[in-house]
Amino acid sequence: MLERLRRQDTRLDHYVDRYAERAHGMTASAIRALFAVANRPEVVSLAGGMPNITDLPLDVVGSLLNELVLTDGRRAMQYGSGQGEPAIREAICEVMRLENISAHPDDVMVSVGSQQGLDLLTRIFCNPGDVVLCEAPSYVGALGVFRSYQCDVVHVAMDDQGLNPTALADALRALRRAGRTVKFLYTIPNYHNPAGVTQTLDRRLELLHLAERADLLVVEDNPYGLLGFDGEPIPALRSLNEDQVIYLGSFSKTFAPGFRVGWVLAPHAVREKLVLAQEAATLCPPVFSQFAVTAYLANHDWRGQIKVFREMYRERRDAMVAGLTSHMPTGTTWTYPEGGFFVWLTLPPGIDSHAMLPRAVTARVAYVPGTAFYADGFGSRHMRLSYCFPTPQRIIEGTRRLGEVLEYEARMLEIFGTAVEPESGRRALGPREAPGPNQA
Amino acid sequence: MADNGYLQTVIVLSGGLSHERDVSLRSGRRVSQALRSRGIEVVESDVDSNLLSQLAEHTGSVAFPLLHGEAGEDGALREVFELLGVPFVGSVGAACRVAFDKSIATTIVGAAGIRTPTQVALPHETFRELGARVLVDALGDQLGFPMMIKPSRCGSALGCSKVARADELPAAMVGAYAYGSVAVIEEFVAGTEVTVAIVDRGNGSIALPAVEIRPESGVYDYAARYTAGATRFLCPAEVESDVADACADVALRVHGALGLRDLSRTDLIITPDGEPVFLEVNVAPGMTETSAVPLAIETAGWSLGKMCADLVRAAAARGGRTRAISLAAP
Hints:
The complex is a heterodimer.
Chain A: E1 8-10, H1 30-38, E2 44-45, H2 58-76, H3 86-97, E3 108-111, H4 113-125, E4 131-136, H5 140-148, E5 152-159, E6 162-163, H6 165-177, E7 182-187, H7 201-214, E8 218-221, H8 237-240, E9 245-250, E10 262-265, H9 268-282, H10 287-299, H11 302-327, E11 333-334, E12 342-346, H12 353-362, E13 365-366, E14 368-369, E15 382-386, H13 392-416
Parallel strand pairs in A: 2-13, 4-5, 4-7, 7-8, 8-9
Antiparallel strand pairs in A: 3-10, 5-6, 9-10, 11-12, 12-15, 14-15
Helix pairs in contact in A: 1-12, 2-10, 4-5, 4-9, 6-7, 11-13
Chain B: E1 10-13, H1 21-36, E2 42-45, H2 51-57, E3 62-65, H3 76-84, H4 93-100, H5 102-111, E4 119-123, H6 124-130, H7 132-143, E5 147-151, E6 161-163, H8 169-177, E7 182-187, E8 192-200, E9 205-207, E10 211-215, H9 222-226, E11 231-235, H10 241-257, E12 263-270, E13 276-282, H11 292-299, H12 304-318
Parallel strand pairs in B: 1-2, 1-3
Antiparallel strand pairs in B: 4-7, 5-6, 5-7, 8-9, 8-10, 8-12, 10-11, 12-13
């Protein structure tokens, strides 16, 4: 029978030889697949970074949307400006004023979440092979953007005071000596994702001084800036320097991520190019979403709502820190976030967060291995823990389960010795090792 | 063409809590779509606390488990179906339990006269008791390098490593133990990688044409399995016809020796001298867009929908077990 069969010779993808080089790293990942289990209710997921909108008053939002459709539906469901609607750009300036940022609506471009703002910025600034400087570790979604434009990411050291300007100066010097083109620094000064730390004012000033001296463009990503729990907020970089800093903002954490409304505040010339890039990419950001957010800001106590969110996240942060204090083995350390969603955990030497994730999932707890937040294969001694979504009780239970897994790993280490591959020898997987945006 | 004339609802089970949940969901979606294309009513279900109520709601339905990995292929759920008298596609629980464990399956397959790699299965406690360094040295001496390290009870190449040197072994062991408490350490068999599906549509088991697997990266790991374009498949395999016949024969014998039913897939390595060596068998083979079995079905001139419908029909005709107890609707 077999002789009569026509042989199929296939790679099961008719387009496999047509993809651009930038698509070559887009492959399946066993680690990413594990996050499918993390979405099951049996698993305490400390992995995803989904904002918790349980406290959002849906009746209020429902009425606003109903009213919007009835009174202004035809405009809201029509194409709009590539730069974004004037009313929301004015409202965005009001939101930024809470962080002492003075801006004109003309210099704001609305984007599809701040993620698209970063994508467009990278599109207009970066050629393949250009260097983008990022903190070590950095936001996984940003690494994905930089990879897709074939940029080389160079990480710069940070500690519990945020990005270290001295390390930045060293990196810049070395790169320029090597003849590399550095296009910008991407930084998250407030409640860093994933590190959970906030850059001090002294360091911000030092960073800006260096940026001016070295003519380094700074892209400040500030999605969590209004979600601080303790003390006075530290001025945004953009509030301290208007020329050297491009600012990314978002309503995803202060209102709701589903509307996909973010923005870029950029100097005039950059903004003009961004708008052209936006029109090429989407024609215009979603008009209905912009109208909806504008209506929300105009008719609801959004400042009060942010306070509600802040208290809810603070309670979860406290649960996380209490759980870690109770359940982590000796030799484990973690950051203390003063806002935002994340804690960055450092494991005892020899324990590999990447290798132990399957065991953690078996123990019904999930986290994101530190390797997801590095473009160069480092990070295996770290993990990101999110406290934004689960209840405080579940967070504490998650840390208990994680503690048991770490005890088991310590026993494995005792048996087999240091089992972690040398970090420099690892393949960088970055964003392939993180959950998708819809995973809690 | 409608197949629903005499078929009840099919409950396609996918997902579950195993490490292969994502793959299982993809298999489930594809089979559901294939069955619906034959006009069959399908209910897609995860394995959770609602499952038994769902079975009760659809009295007379047939279950089609597409659960991969532990708690899917280990037979436990199928034992529940047998207990409840729910007809299901695939092998009985006891056979799955044996087949799913690579070490136990290899022992039985070897006893049936089929060539298998030399291997040992060790829990990590053994390394603790005997001393890891001594045991690692002994494994190197006895099996030689390269060698393969695998979790004893897992699929999709998760936790599997090819180890070229003794100093790579500890990390590979830790990687395998991350997926289960027992690891299989076996000799590496070089050759052509093929997989052969066995199907019984109610009129006897037959082997589908072997699928030859040539991963672009050289390693048929998770990324090579589930990234379209990452692996070249040739079906029928580019081997001599007597070798192809030998592969089909081995897969049929594996299916028989392990007491499997309806559908299985046997992974083999063909040595340079043309001998098939058994690697492992799957009782719930992947049915994703990048899986080998749907390709073999297509090459054989069948349709996935027709074949799945036939398997469902055979399961329905077989019915549930006599020890069935009644299911009360909630």
